[in-house]
Amino acid sequence: MTLWSGRFSEPTDADLRALNDSIGFDIRFYAQDIKGSIAYAHAIADAGLITKDECGRIVEGLTLIRQEFEQGIFVLAPGDEDIHTAVERRLIEIIGDVGGKLHTGRSRNDQVATDFRLWTLDTVKALHQQLGLLQTALVEKAEQHLETLMPGYTHLQPAQPITAAHWLMSFFWMLQRDRDRLRDAHPRIAVSPLGSGALAGTPLAIDRIELAERLGFAAISENSLDAVSDRDFVAETLFVLALTGTHLSRLAEDVILYSNPLFGFITLNDRYSTGSSLMPQKRNADPMELARGKAGRLIGNLTGFLTTLKGLPSTYNKDMQEDKEALFDAVDTLQKLLPVVIAIIHTLHLNPEKMQAALGEELLATDLADYLVNKGLPFRAAHHVVGRVVRLAAQENLNLSQVPLAKLREISDLFSADVAQVFDFAASVARRTAPGGTAPNAVRDQIRQAKQRLDSLSE
Ligand code: ARG
Description:
mainly alpha, Fumarase C, Chain B, domain 1, Ribonucleotide Reductase Protein R1, domain 1, 3 domains, two-stranded antiparallel sheet, 18 helices, binds arginine
């Protein structure tokens, strides 16, 4: 028997129960449900609806139920449809009829929204911290490779030399924005819908503000119709997690590519590499392929849930129950993934010799154009001149530095003997000292900024 079976003459169909019940997954926020109910008991006691003594018994009963959950001895009853009804049913079993007073003026509609917001607040905080650990791993690795040179790519074609530290730090900032977004979402998640009733508000003289404060919310909802159906906080969190997953997938792709023997820039630690059952030589980056692949799942959770919300009529509709599995899955996915990605970055071995060996002189073509610019040539013209030098070198099968000065001077008489100084990868990198550039000194500053952001956000 369910708690709402009064108006029906036949028991609910078993297949419908299997479809309708959410206890299989919303049991996950039993702690938030009980916390919300304890606060609500105090609120209706303050409003004079139950006596202090009744409130005390309700709180005692709820505390006992929490212990049962914590000890793993809470027994579900056949009628338990969701966590809210399960807790209420057990409360009445333990303390008797007075337990039935707890739900006065409250609906599962404002209750579930309250519980899920509380759960999301806790979860967002934990993810925020975990992302910080990944950022820390990136900073630590970057600090070891401030002077390590590697090719930088655009369009996946060799572009300009960069430092490995700069490459690693680029992911720090993606994650920083993800952490900022999690933090920015906080005031919109931390809004208490409790006291909205089923949809129209509560006739009880409860102090909604005090109730919200007791639960750690920052504000109360202003419209009960909106409050019981506002799942923006779920969609927004799903978006941040989908974008985080997208960032991780890009990091993963670089790691996969750079660990390919054709690049050989990095080697994954044995503990985080996988082999092949058939090919004995294989060293696969499976965890990174999973990091890349899981982004699809995270994006799917977001688009799936937005599709559920789209076009719903006003206030609560059962469709909204779909919010939970989407967010649970997204959170579980990241919480399984992040520890492995963090460990992979911590144990990642960089191979500076391989990176060095991949530095072709064509990466210095821009520097050669800059050389001509310094001699007074407009950049557009310099670009054209160097294009001709590159073509000539390719025709003659020469590196750029091997093209004889006489040949260079045939193309532009601005070339002189000092052009030899251009062909120095470290010097090229060291010139890019403007903030945000790849020069070791600029990256040192970047890392200083990064550490400040980590400190200021960890409070
Ligand atoms: N299990 C439901 C959910 O997750 C709780 C709210 C049910 N409300 C209702 N009117 N049936 O959304």
